[in-house]
Amino acid sequence: MEVFGTNRLGQFDIKDGIANNMLLENGGSLRVEENDFAYNTTVDSGGLLEVMDGGTATGVDKKAGGQLIVSTNALEVSGTNSKGQFSIKDGVSKNYELDDGSGLIVMEDTQAIDTILDEHATMQSLGKDTGTRVQANAVYDLGRSDQNGSITYSSKAISENMVINNGRANVWAGTMVNVSVRGNDGILEVMKPQINYAPAMLVGKVVVSEGASFRTHGAVDTSKADVSLENSAWTIIADITTTNQNTRLNLANLAMSGANVIMMAEPVTRSSVTASAENFTTLTTNTLSGNGNFYMRTDMANHQSDQLNVTGQATGDFKIFVTDTGASPAAGDSLTLVTTGGGDAAFTLGNAGGVVDIGTYEYTLLDNGNHSWSLAENRAQITPSTTDVLNMAAAQPLVFDAELDTVRERLGSVKGVNYDTAMWSSAINTRNNVTTDAGAGFEQTLTGLTLGIDSRFSREESSTIRGLFFGYSHSDIGLIAAAKAMSIATPWGLMPVGSIRTVPMLMEW
């Protein structure tokens, strides 16, 4: 096949697998495959040049807005971009800077040195890369490549001394050695182990700072990692489909400064959780230092929880935020959440008020005095929900009794009085202060009005009163737990029939 003609840069031609002086722009593209050659190609805005395994492209002039996608198995790719000269040859990429959505595929047994990913560029590495910088919303994948829908994994992939600055790195397989992540848009995410492949490994220093995010899925291998979290967050996601199969992560060391370790996807906001669906996490580290927060889940009723285990020294101040499944545990239950091998570290419960509502009682974090901390019930204070139930149960009889008192007062007021038929009314305006040893209590203001009509029927030695009444009452209740309740009642009924005897003075019901 032969193609020739002119473009705005001059003449071009394609013949026998060789392309000369091509201009790619506005959707134009050229794919250079094995034993193909492209010389002096200009990739302008909207253009795409792909150089795959065994292909050659020299004299490439990549302009702003153009895309260049290259495999390190290409025989040779060289040229210039906005940052200067670049070259990929003999399976080695050096000083290659990608931008504008350009991509680099590092194949097995090849390497990339000092690569910069910028402006939505992508890099997929099955080989080895050193000194890679991922920034400006660029995306890097270690141990995985996707070429036209064909996905390949490699446990041989390795990345060393990576810096992520507001970019994203996904670790699917292989080993990442020494990585720094920073910026609010910076993300380092280690995926769950792939079927038939060893878990991805983090080795050496893992520094996450300046609002960046660190996420791990399932049982990845972090046993040789020194993790440092500075004003950032590490989210540990179980990502396990088997019920009650817990995730265990091991670290060499963990240092924190104003950081969060979240052992759940939704810290302190989960609802409708069932114990049977829980997969808990145990995080073990040789040392712990600094300050920060740990977000943990518990299932007190079934004696399960996330756990933090420091085998060596722990120093600093840390808060534990707890979310429980909500099932009421047995009285006296406690659950160890933190253990250390020594040191002066302090752990306190970070939930509001230093307590967590579990079933009937509130629970607090207790220092056991042996370098361990347990979540245990605080019987001195019942939970707000239990307080509310007790308060409302006690308030209702007071309302009923106040309403019934108006009827009693009416019967008492007409005793010994001669009349035929009369209408009457009685107002209610009372205030009650109630407390209990269990910690429940409330202040109640009760107002209301009862209207009635009755008739008196005299007999030889007694009299009978018959009548009807209707009432309305309004009860404002101020609960000890700072909540407020209100109840409105509209009682009605028949006046009880009574026989009032003059001698002796007795009311018969």
Automatic annotation (TrEMBL):
Domain Pertactin central region: 252-376
GO cellular component: a single term: outer membrane
Lineage top rank: taxon: Bacteria
Entries under SUPFAM superfamilies matching the protein: Autotransporter, Pectin lyase-like
Pfam family, one: AIDA
NCBIfam families given in the database record: autotrans_barl, O_hepto_targRPT
Protein name: Autotransporter
